[in-house]
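[scheduler] slot 2 assigned
[scheduler] job type: sequence-to-structure, two independent chains
[scheduler] chain ordering preserved from manifest
[runner] begin chain α
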Amino acid sequence: MGSQNAARAVVFSPLDDGTGRAQLVTQRLTDGIISGMLKDGERLPSESDLAKRLGVAVTTAREALDIMRDQGLLRTRRGREGGSFVTYDRETAAKLLDDRLRSSSRIELRDLCLVTSALAGTAAEEAADRASDEDIETLTVLAANADISTAGGARRAAARFGLEIAAISQSPRLVREEIRLQAESGPILWLCLTEEKYRILNRDARGRVLEAIRRVDPAQARESTVQPIRAAFEWLIEQRVRES
């Protein structure tokens, strides 16, 4: 399964929280749309199929879809080819992310940073020990072809590089967790990439990670991976203070 297909599978995987609240379903699907894993015009599973995949009641799935329609993230078509279709709008997505940032506490943001740093840092350490010449060539191509001219391009570059590092670690669980975190937390974590200096910082950090892997230096690979995550956390805190 390719990384994009695996990421989409995580969007529709069972929710960890057993309460099955509609807001949890809404957040999962919204993150999938904002992160680009669910594309504009894409048809979602039916209410019953969605409920089964996420492990919630059909009424919960229906309520979540209604919320997303009200937010302008979905539209409904009737008939044989009908269903719920993604309607991605940058302004709507940006507003939702701003609202989410304002509603997140410092503790929640710090926890996001800690979990992401622990996961990505461990994957980088393992990759430095296990990378083959072919793996290094793949990372080199990814780094060279990264488009950081826009926030969206920079997010995709960070996501692809992170997934490749996790794959090189040869830990299926690390790969699954990396994909899950990207789907659930990537949109808010990398809000800083709207600013050019953070896009450059991330690009340069990937270069240092790649060099550390070439030198078989696990400690430096971890540190270079974690550094832009810390910077992203600090940006989130500063932005939250500015908007409060």
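[runner] end chain α
[runner] begin chain β
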Amino acid sequence: MTSTQLIPIQVIQYEPVFNTDTNQYADKSPWKKHQRNRQTHTCPCKAGTTFACTRSFDSHVKSGCHKDWILKYNAKQEIVAAMEKTYQIKLRQLEQQNVRVIAEREQWKTQANEAQRLAEELEQSNIRLAREKETAEEELRAFKNRLKGLID
């Protein structure tokens, strides 16, 4: 008795390669020449487009649908690159602002701690002065009583 099993095929999404000479994305075969056990690729230019050999890949990249997709892909990647650049600039600005805010917060903390220390010193000074006043008033009352006793 022979059993049949389904073997899952791993499908990889095709992406064009960036050509640094032209600053454009271009098609390049996803396989090496004479490579065996090639994996199946799918192209996002059109739903359901798959290729598993060089001949079908070459035929596909010559299609009008794929050529239009490559042009749009280049434009989209330029937009993505511009957005990435803007994002990086904003990120740097936010990081710098964050550093400034942290430095300000530390400065405010230092000033608040200094103000708290001064307030505690003033409170202690007020307590000491109140005690001295109380002592002076008691001495004054005692002096008045002695003076009154001497006069009477």
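[runner] end chain β
[qc] chain β: The beta strands are 11-13, 17-19, 24-26, 40-42, 50-51.
[scheduler] slot 2 released
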